[in-house]
Design a protein that fits this description.
Elements: H1 6-12, E1 17-21, H2 26-39, E2 42-49, H3 59-66, E3 70-75, H4 77-90, H5 102-121, E4 125-127, H6 136-147, E5 152-154, H7 167-177, E6 190-193, E7 198-201, E8 231-238, E9 241-245, E10 248-249, H8 252-264, E11 270-276, E12 282-288, H9 290-306, H10 309-328, H11 334-346, E13 352-359, E14 362-369, H12 377-380, H13 392-400, H14 402-411
Parallel strand pairs: 1-2, 1-4, 2-3, 4-5
Antiparallel strand pairs: 6-7, 7-12, 8-9, 8-13, 9-10, 11-12, 13-14
Helix pairs in contact: 2-7, 4-5, 5-6, 8-9, 10-11
């Protein structure tokens, strides 16, 4: 017999108390009141502070007025940076060549804390406001499945008794119930912010030909408006983690914030892409990730000196798979944990300093040094032998060409090369 599906479980027995992932926006405010109307249960609102700045101001009053029994705000910035962002950055994870996974990596830390609060509060269910078209529903619920399989999951947007078709219906409901949210029928785009980035999607951005508004961005200036003089920044790494900027040692969250500030004023880290969601839908997203872009450039620079070739190539071959795990929501899956162990083992000697030049939207490596450097100037130089016998390359090349000569003889095209037909 199969276990009940997430939304079937809600109707199998009465829900006494539910912990709702709550932002205070239209969607989660409506969901909070809807849970009260639908189940007659106690609703504990939970807001995770993962670096969304002023967005947490005034939430308690709003949540209580909407009907929550309490609001719990958890400051997760330190553990978010240390236990989630930094491990991902050690992997140089990028999804589909562009996306630095700022939203994706925030979901497991939020869901983990939601589970902790549900158990602390004696709740029998958790709820979220992710839609049935997106990735976040998977990220939340796979975390719930791994960390608290006993909890019921309420995902209103996928339920048959959720009658709201879109924003207009929700605005009407909010007005009817006197839900204290500022709502308008116009929504040019949606925005999600955390310590790592700001993401924009929906509204006008659903047209992939339309350029984003210039005043839309929050963390970065437009590259054309950035300073006319380049800025150099030095980043120190220890075991693959950034630990200092310009000689000042900082905690993980603080170093990301500092990197955001420095890179943002030079217009670093803007991305506009059409990505493939896990559910099979293509989606246009616009992201600004200044600090992580800067830190990833520095990380690569130090790795160039310190990583063995085969270790680097093996790790790089696994980066797309790792990025998929993060994007799809498998942070707590055993395959991600196993791959993380390999990645972390590769980072033991990734110690050193990278110098990055920032100028009008570009971040380029200007220098790197490391006490664990594998780079030997004498060996690499064209001006001196440096202990390298160039005649050794003759046998090496001859062995490498053995199979190619065999193919030429077998095909009878020796000396002719291959021609296009």
């Amino acid at each position: 017999m199969r276990p009940p599906r997430a939304n079937e479980a809600d109707t199998m027995e009465k829900i006494g108390k539910v912990v709702l992932a709550y932002s205070g926006g239209l969607d989660t405010s409506v969901i909070l009141r809807w849970l009260l109307d639908r189940f007659g249960c106690e609703v504990v609102a939970f807001c995770a502070d993962v670096g969304q700045a002023e967005e947490t101001i005034g939430l308690e009053k709003k949540a209580l007025k909407t009907g929550a029994s309490k609001l719990i705000i958890a400051d997760l910035r330190a553990e978010f940076a240390r236990d989630f962002v930094f491990p991902m950055m050690r992997a140089n994870a990028v999804y589909e060549g562009y996306y630095l996974l700022g939203t994706s990596i925030a979901r497991p830390v939020i869901a983990r804390k939601q589970v902790e609060i549900a158990r602390m509060e004696g709740a029998d269910a958790v709820a979220h406001g992710a839609t049935g078209k997106g990735n976040d529903q998977v990220r939340f619920e796979l975390t719930f499945a791994r960390l608290a399989p006993e909890l019921r999951i309420i995902a209103p947007w996928r339920r048959s008794d959720w009658t709201f078709k879109g924003r207009a219906d929700m605005i009407a409901y909010a007005n009817e119930k006197k839900i204290p949210v500022q709502v308008t029928s116009e929504k040019p785009y949606s925005m999600d912010r955390n310590l790592v980035h700001v993401s924009f999607e929906g509204g006008i951005l659903e047209d992939p030909w339309r350029e984003p508004y210039k005043d839309m961005f929050r963390l970065t200036v437009a590259p054309e408006d950035a300073p006319d003089k380049p800025e150099y920044v030095e980043i120190e790494y220890a075991a693959g983690n950034p630990v200092a900027i310009n000689g000042e040692r900082l905690a993980p969250a603080a170093i990301i914030e500092r990197a955001n500030e420095i890179a943002g004023r030079h217009g670093i880290g803007r991305v506009d892409m059409v990505e493939n969601r896990y559910v099979g839908i293509k989606s246009r997203g616009v992201y600004e990730t200044p600090g992580a872009t800067l830190l990833s450039h520095g990380h690569r620079a130090v790795e160039q000196l310190t990583l063995d070739r085969e270790v680097m190539h093996l790790r790089d071959s696994l980066v797309p798979r790792y990025a998929e795990m993060v994007y799809y929501g498998y942070w707590f899956a055993p395959e991600r944990e196993a791959l993380q162990a390999l990645i972390d083992a590769s980072q033991t000697d990734v110690n050193g300093v990278a110098r990055i030049k920032l100028y009008k939207g570009s971040a380029t490596i200007a220098g790197r040094k490391s006490p664990n450097s594998l780079y030997d100037p004498a060996m690499s130089s064209f001006e001196e032998a440096g202990g390298y016998d160039q005649s050794d390359a003759e046998g090496f090349i001859r062995l490498a060409g053995t199979r190619l000569r065999a193919i030429a003889r077998a095909r009878g095209d020796s000396g002719k090369g291959r021609r296009e037909k």
